[in-house]
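Q: what sequence does this backbone want?
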C-alpha cells in the first residue's frame, strides 16, 4: 500500500545537515533538485569537496562537505545555456518527512531560494497546492514600487527602462 501524499505549497522551509529553516522553492517545472554550493572541486584523490551555500548566505558555515559518491550531469539553466553540474545525495527533512535527495550543485547566490525541489524529489510523496506557501511572495512589492515610479513621472520611467534594456 502506498503512503499518503502530503500537500505542500509553492515553497517551504527544509532542514539539512543541522541547518533548519532553509528556504526551498517547490519547482514542478524542474526535473531535478538543486542546491546552492560554493568552492566546488574534485581532489587528486577523486573526492568531491564543496561548501553549502556561500559567504553571503545566513546558512553558510564554511564547513567542507566531502563525497566519494557523486555524479555529473549536463543541465540547461534558466537562461538556456547548458552547464556541467556535479550531483550528490543529501538527506533533508521536508514538513517532518526525511528524504534522501540527489541535488545538482550550483551557484544560486542570485536566487531568492537557495534550494529547489524538482519533480523527481516530489513524485509519489507530495501534491503541490499553488495557493499555499510558507514564504510570502515579494513580486507584489516590486510591482507596487514600479507602479509608484511610473505614476511619479511616466516619461522618465519609460526612458530608464529603455536604458536598462539597451545595457542588457
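A:
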Amino acid at each position: 500500500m502506498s503512503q499518503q501524499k502530503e500537500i505542500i505549497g509553492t515553497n517551504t522551509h527544509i532542514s539539512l545537515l543541522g541547518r533548519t529553516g532553509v528556504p526551498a522553492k517547490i519547482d514542478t517545472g524542474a526535473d531535478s533538485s538543486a542546491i546552492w554550493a560554493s568552492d566546488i572541486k574534485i581532489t587528486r584523490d577523486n573526492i568531491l569537496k564543496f561548501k553549502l551555500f556561500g559567504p553571503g548566505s545566513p546558512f553558510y558555515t564554511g564547513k567542507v562537505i566531502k563525497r566519494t559518491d557523486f555524479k555529473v550531469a549536463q543541465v540547461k539553466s534558466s537562461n538556456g545555456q547548458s552547464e556541467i553540474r556535479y550531483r550528490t545525495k543529501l538527506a533533508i527533512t521536508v514538513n517532518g518527512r526525511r528524504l534522501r535527495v540527489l541535488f545538482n550543485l550550483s551557484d544560486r547566490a542570485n536566487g531568492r531560494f537557495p534550494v529547489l525541489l524538482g519533480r523527481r524529489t516530489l513524485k509519489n510523496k507530495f501534491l503541490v497546492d499553488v495557493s499555499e506557501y510558507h514564504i510570502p511572495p515579494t513580486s507584489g512589492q516590486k510591482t507596487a514600487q514600479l507602479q509608484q515610479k511610473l505614476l511619479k513621472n511616466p516619461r522618465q520611467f519609460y526612458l530608464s527602462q529603455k536604458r536598462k534594456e539597451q545595457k542588457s
